[in-house]
Model the fold of this input.
Amino acid sequence: MTVTTSIQKPQSSWLRFLASFKPKSLGDGVGTGFLFLGAWLIIFPFVWMLSASLKPADEVYDSSFHFWPQTFVGDVNYYGVLFDQPYLTFLANSFIVCAGILVVQLVTAVPAAYALAKLKFRGSTILFGFVVASLTIPINVTSIPIYLGLVKVGLLDTYFSLMFPFFVSVFAIFLFRQFFKDYPDSIIDAARVDGFSEIEIILRLILPAAIPAVAAFSVFSVVAHWNDLYWPLIVVQSQEKMTAALSMLQYQSEFDNDYGRTFASATVVTLPMVVIFLFARRLFIRSITMSGIKG
Amino acid sequence: MAGLELRDIRKSFGNTQVLKGLSFQIADGEFLSLVGESGCGKSTLLRIISGLETPDSGEVLIGGGVMNAASPKDRNISMVFQDYALYPHMSVAQNISMLLIMARLPLHARLPLLNRISPSARALRPVIASEVEAVAKQLRIEHLLNRRPAELSGGQRQRVALGRALVRHPKLFLMDEPLSNLDAKLRVEVRKEITELHQSTGLTFVYVTHDQTEAMTMSHRVALLEKGELLQLATPSALYADPHSVAVARFIGSPEINILPAEVSSGIARLGAEMVPGRAVNMDGSTLFALRPEAARLVDRHDVSTDFKLGFTRHLTEDLGHEVLLHGTLDALPETRFRMRLPKTSDLLSGTSLDTALHVGFDANNLLFFNADGARLRDAAIVAEASEAAQ
Amino acid sequence: MSPTALPRQEGGRRRLAYLLSAPASVLILLIYVLPIVAVFVISFTDYSLVYDGFDFVGLDNYKQMFTDEHFAEALKNTLIYAAIFIPGAFFLPLVLAIAIQRRRRFRSILEVLYFMPVTSTLTAMTLVWRALLDGNQGAINNMLVGLGLDKVNWLGDGDIVLISIAMVSIWGIIGFNMVLFLAGLTVIPQNLYEAASIDGADHPLDRFFQVTWPLLAPTSLFVSVNTLVTAFKLFDTVAVLTHGGPDRASEVYLYLAYLEGFENFNMAYACALSLVFLVVLFLVAWLQTRLGDRRRTQA
Done:
């Protein structure tokens, strides 16, 4: 009879933990190596930016790259960016614009989406048709008339002009409608039987249920408008209303030839979204996979 | 020659031991069911037999050869998955022919685009088509060959899954709860078809299910698993009549067997406060008496035809037409549920209400005895005083 | 309950529906419908912000496209850029997603690292790329010299600049598409791979072509359409990195439309350009639904 060979496994959980890192095969280890090499190439620009932001101007373009500067001027660079240059204003502008856009988007999209999903009314098909058609229309196409309109009413270079084209997000309406459609009618009917008014149903049943979708969309919206260049480029005329993303364009015209400080400002502009991402990774990823619903 | 032999199969996931050293053999052509509650390890065992999972230790022998190192395709097995695992993007014919294509065409002839121009692919296509057709005919699904799985009913999908398994002419046919996604009526029908399929092909079947009725009606033998251990492997009737342990006795049979806790000391057994007539031999201390629900009947208060006669309080009556199930408690053991299965006609029930005092009678030789740990006491018995005296 | 209660409720609900959808409807009218009508109308005029008044000029603006060298060049640049960008932005994330999905240990850290560029502010990171790609002292050229290779004039050479921009864009989109592919991969039932391995399809190529690729088709369709549209929408990177240079070698379609509209104030011509762009987008969307429907009826 054959003797069964039982593989002796490491007994302590610590050893087992270590053993779990052992690649199953050589090919697997090589694959992991390549994946991390790729990841290093991907994050190298961030590493380089962070490094440059700590260096004096003449060190930034040194032919040999050292992560840690020979002369550390990180404190000077960041102090300069935040207090000598108007970056606090730029960041505040971006923040105000993103927050304003998001609030209005939610206030307009959630009710409309609920009406489209759960209430019957004349014109709902037409409205939904416009929503779907508008999904395809980018701001680049409508920018000229909206710009002309803003010129006409004299609102160029205001927060309003920065936010206005994004006050309604057809994507949000589409997304939330899909989400509300999946909400069981029986619960809404049960609430009606229990004496809830329609408004109460929205506030006490639908809104709490919609929080995951709203959160994911919020991430999507804030990132999109924090990073937007095109529209601010068109409507902003003064430094007072400049957004953080737009401010990066100033370096085209030798706004600052202190390269270390330049990259300190780039870091400051990039940092908020990266921090949000690291803390709300799941939301970020959900916001992207949700965008796939469209297809 | 054994169709399948398992030797001391062990498997753990993390810190959970799923299989704790299973060994058994199945004869060539046998139909064996693996039965147990979910989480008992039956599906893991099936996956180890198929090669989808590797055991931590132990050996799998199929048709006499050790298969531990063999990949699933080299084990000459077929498997029907619980939700059939049909390829949704392929027609029924393509689903069934997948195996033949993989087995007979070289890699380059299987790749997209290349497969259109490969001469070997072209030559083999009609051969494969005719084999697929033969299997489809056997399962009466010829008319479905060009449809996709999404266009089929549950029963039709089930047949396609069987067809995909049959086309290989395997040594071993594995099925993982293949009926669980069908409605009750269809289940009975397909159950019969699978039995017929087994008879007509003569293959070795291993069938995983949590449903004892399926296991009992279809198989030659049933392996009952619990927490990764084999409780008993026997024919359905042996499992029912001669269980090794309380766990087996409980699992097999519906309604569940009655388990009555008894205290035995120096030959005298008590059920609660009530003394059992006769002498208890080969048992001592806490003991379990087990009685199938159909072994008990209602008796008149004055009836003396049964060894036991106990007061019974009825809580619920289920009238199934051809039989009546009574649920209640024995007056001696008010904490223990007691079930009875009666033929419809019981005069003693007519005109009674739930309050009416009833009496249950049964014979000592219908009792099964287990010790407090649940192990069967084979030598134990209740012997009538008179017959003992006669000896 | 009185017999009239139900209809009255229905009427109330309808009024509520109008109330709820009114703000969004008005905004859609102001932000999408009227501007599109305006773009359409303006594109048939000679309107310019610089002069008062305008005349209808019929199809002149559209005819101008056929004679406009800049238009032809921008179109060519956009197509070349798309041809470089799309394959990289599709296949790299696909390979990465398949490689990462199988890993338990490092999956989340790799996901985070590859996703970083998606979250970052592209205008700021483009500034970094401009430094890295600098022809004289950029880190990439330093590395090439270190490897004994020649320096490349990444941003200054008209033949190379579109490749450089595509590289930066691929860097920015890898994580995005990878996450989509990962989501598509996780919904493929594991037991199909098991059935395949019992059927003998256990070679990685068989697994990919028999199971993964066909079942990933809806995701692939979405990713490819999305990537195509992203390619056409290229603007930020050009605006920060090259300003369309050198010598218009990286002037892509939307950048041209922007220049015509907001630098040269040829609003009417810019509107015509925008409208052509929109038609292309609608065509793509239509194609996507057609392909998607065909998939669905096939499945």
